[in-house]
Hints:
By secondary structure, the protein is of the alpha+beta class. The protein folds into three domains: 1-56, Roll (Transcription Regulation, Sacy, Chain A); 57-172, Orthogonal Bundle (PTS-regulatory domain, PRD), CATH 1.10.1790.10; 184-280, PRD domain (PTS-regulatory domain, PRD). It is built from eleven helices and five strands; from the N terminus they run E-E-E-E-E-H-H-H-H-H-H-H-H-H-H-H. Helix 10 crosses helix 11.
Amino acid sequence: MKPNYKVNMVMNNNVVLAINLENKNEVILLGKGIGFGKKKNQTVYYPKDVIERSFINVSQTLKSDYYNLIQQMDLQVMGVCQEIILMAEKAIGELNDSIHIVLTDHIGFAIERIKQNMVIENPFLDEIKVLYGPEFELAKEALNRINESIEIVLPEEEAGFIALHLHSARKNLAVKTTLKNTKAIKKIIEFLEGELGTKVIQDNLNYRRLLTHLRGGIERVEQGIHFENPLLTTIKKDFKEAWRIADKVGEMIQVELNLKIEEDEIGYLCIHIDRLLRLKS
C-alpha cells in the first residue's frame, strides 16, 4: 500500500503526530497500536478503519501552543491525554478544540505537583460530583488511565478538576467561567444550609435536583434563554418561606456572577427549596 502519512512524533503506542501526505495537513492520529514500532520521519500506510480519531489543529495559536507543550512535557503524558479526550468525545460528544491544550497542560501540572509531594485540594469536589455527573465519571476513568500509564497516584480531587475541564469543553465555556459558577453554587448551598439549620445530604434526590437546577438556571441566563413560569403567582402565594429564600439566592447570583435572575426562574428554584424545607419539618 502507498504510504499516506509521515510520522513526526510518536507519543505512545496509540497516539502519533503525523503529516497527511495527500493534503500536507499536520494531524494527531489516535488508534490502537498505530505508534508501535514507528520512528520519526517514517512514511506509513494507515487504513481508515484503524484511525479512531484524527485531530486537525486549524488555529495557528492552538497549534503553536500545542508545540510549546510538546517541547516541555513528557510525550507519554501528552499521549494519555489525547486518549482521554477521545474517550470523552465518544461518551459525551464533541469537545472544544482548546481541550487539547488546557486539559493536557493542567494534567501535566498536576503530575508535577504530585511528584513534588504537594497536596491537591479541591473544595468543590462534592458539588462537582453532582453538578457534572457524567463528566466526573469520565474523569475517574481518566484518572485510572493516568495513574496506570504514568505510574503515579493522582487523588480523587484531581478527577474533580478534570471534570470541570470536560464540562467546559463540552459547553464551549472557559474553565474559569465553570469554576466561578461552581464557587457561586457552593456559596448558595452554604447559605441554604444556614437557612435550613442543617447540612444537606449529598445523596438526597431533592438536593441533587436543586443543584442541577441551579447550574441549569445560571447557564440559561448566560445564554439568554428564558422560560415562563405559568405557576408563578401560585408559587409566590403558597410557598412564602421558600420564595423568600429563593429570592435571596437570586440576589446572591446577581452579586457573585453579575447575572439577573428573573422571577420565573426564581419560581422554579422556589419549588426545589420548598421540598428541602418540607424534609426538615
